[in-house]
Write a structure and sequence with these properties.
Elements lengths: L10 E6 L5 H14 L4 E5 L6 H10 L7 H13 L2 H9 L3 E5 L2 H9 L5 H5 L10 E6 L2 H7 L10 H14 L5 E4 L4 H19 L14
Parallel strand pairs: 1-3, 1-4, 2-3, 4-5
Helix pairs in contact: 1-9, 2-3, 3-5, 5-8
Bound molecules: 2'-deoxyguanosine-5'-monophosphate.
2'-deoxyguanosine-5'-monophosphate binds next to helix 3 and helix 5.
Enzyme class: transferase
Pathway: Pyrimidine metabolism; dTTP biosynthesis
Keywords: ATP-binding, Kinase, Nucleotide biosynthesis, Nucleotide-binding, Transferase
């Protein structure tokens, strides 16, 4: 294994269903790491500002319908088009805190009935996160939170399917968090594990092998 000459940033991902509290935790973590003097940046998928991202945005806002497989590939392309910039930032020592990643890609599309292995395949070889936090809600809590959204997918029965697929996708390296807990408690746990990860991976090479071992 080749080691890096200068330390790199960590690739931290938060995953979960809609309304699981990811976006709040991502912001809290970025603010805290900045306070502690880390070089850190918030990233979010889908990245709606690119051309591909604006097509995804129209789809999510129900402005446009797109074939299930075609939109799946657009979500994946949206991740791929960001890879070189993300890689550069990580190698420059910037820690990326990322709101959603390829796991959402597979979970949301498979919840529509697409084959899970097919859903994973366009994302094979993406950067592999150094840590994945999964914001897990009980079905009772999910019940309370779902059903108010305006975007596509923000519907209770669909979110339940997504949650089940996330639970199927998770591997032993994921940190599964009880997302029903108080915001500050969750934040402290995410902060503690993120600091450990930043330290642990600082001189390790980036891994560009997402899901390669599964196929
Ligand atoms: P957010 O901006 O985090 O609320 O995400 C917007 C919606 O898009 C949310 O319902 C989850 C869904 N989503 C995120 N990534 C993907 C993806 O790669 N594929 C599909 N099909 N849906 C996704």
């Amino acid at each position: 294994m080749t080691f890096l000459e200068k330390s790199r940033g960590a690739f931290i991902v938060l995953e979960g269903c809609d309304r699981s509290g990811k976006s709040t935790q991502v912001k809290l973590l970025v603010n805290r790491l900045e306070q502690l003097g880390h070089n850190v940046m918030l990233w979010k998928f889908p990245e709606r500002k690119t051309q591909i991202g604006s097509m995804i945005d129209e789809y999510l806002k129900n402005v446009k319908d797109v074939d299930d497989k075609a939109i799946h590939l657009l979500f994946s392309a949206n991740r791929w088009e960001c890879m070189s910039e993300m890689k550069k930032k990580l190698l420059d020592g910037i820690t990326l805190v990322v709101d959603r990643y390829a796991y959402s890609g597979a979970a949301y599309s498979a919840a529509k009935g697409l084959d899970l292995e097919w859903c994973k395949s366009p994302d094979i070889g993406l950067l592999t996160p150094d840590i994945v936090f999964f914001m897990n809600l009980t079905s009772e809590e999910a019940e309370k939170r779902f059903g108010f959204g305006n975007e596509r997918y923000e519907e209770k029965a669909f979110q339940e399917k997504v949650r089940n697929i996330f639970n199927f996708l998770k591997d032993p390296t994921w940190k599964v968090l009880n997302a029903c807990r108080a915001v500050e408690k969750l934040h402290k746990e995410i902060e503690r594990l993120s600091l450990k990860t930043i330290q642990k991976c600082s001189n390790l090479p980036l891994k560009e092998d997402l899901w390669e071992k599964c196929f």
